[in-house]
Write a structure and sequence with these properties.
The protein has helices at 11-30, 35-48, 89-104, 119-124; strands spanning 2-5, 52-56, 59-68, 73-80, 108-113, 128-132, 136-141. The chain is of the alpha+beta class and 143 residues long. It has one domain (2-141): Aminopeptidase, CATH 3.40.630. It has a seven-stranded mixed sheet, sandwiched between helices.
Length: 143
C-alpha cells in the first residue's frame, strides 16, 4: 500500500470511506444510521484535519489522520474500506502513526466508539484503555 497526502479532490472518497467504515458500528451502538448527517459531519472533519490516503494499485482504500500536540500525537481517524479490512492495511497505518509518535517522543492517543471492532487492533499494537465511558473509549500508547 502506498500512502500519500490527501488533497481536496479526495474529499468525496474520504466521506464515502467514513460512511462505509462507520455505518456498522454507529448502527450497532446507536440503533440507526443517517447517511446525510454522518456524511456532513465527516466532510467538516476532512475540511479541518490533515489526512493521508492509502492506495492499493492506485485505488484509494484507506485513510489516516493524526495531529501533533505539545504532549501527544492524537490519532483522529484510521479508516479502511470494509472489503479491505482484516488484511493488514489498518495495522500498517497504525504502525506508521506509532513510529511517528515514538520519533517525536510522545504518546499516541485516540478516542473511539465503545463498540468499535478496531479496539482489538489498537490493543494488539500496545494501546491501553485510559478511560471508558458509556459511548467512547480513550486509548494511549506511551511514546
Amino acid at each position: 500500500m502506498q500512502v500519500r497526502a490527501a488533497t481536496q479532490d479526495d474529499t468525496p472518497f474520504l466521506v464515502h470511506l467514513a460512511c462505509e467504515a462507520y455505518r456498522d458500528v454507529v448502527t450497532r451502538q446507536f440503533g440507526s444510521w443517517n447517511e446525510g448527517e454522518q456524511a456532513a459531519r465527516f466532510a467538516a472533519k476532512v475540511a479541518r484535519l490533515p489526512f493521508e490516503v492509502g492506495e492499493l494499485g492506485g485505488r484509494p482504500i484507506a485513510a489516516v489522520s493524526s495531529s501533533v500536540h505539545s504532549d501527544h500525537v492524537f490519532l483522529n481517524e484510521l479508516l479502511v474500506l470494509p472489503e479491505f479490512q482484516n488484511r493488514g492495511f489498518g495495522a500498517d497505518l497504525l504502525e506508521r502513526e506509532i513510529r511517528r509518535a515514538r520519533q517525536l517522543g510522545l504518546p499516541l492517543r485516540l478516542h473511539t466508539l465503545r463498540l468499535n471492532r478496531a479496539l482489538r487492533i489498537f490493543e494488539r499494537h500496545g494501546l491501553v484503555v485510559t478511560a471508558r465511558g458509556e459511548v467512547f473509549i480513550d486509548l494511549e500508547r506511551a511514546g
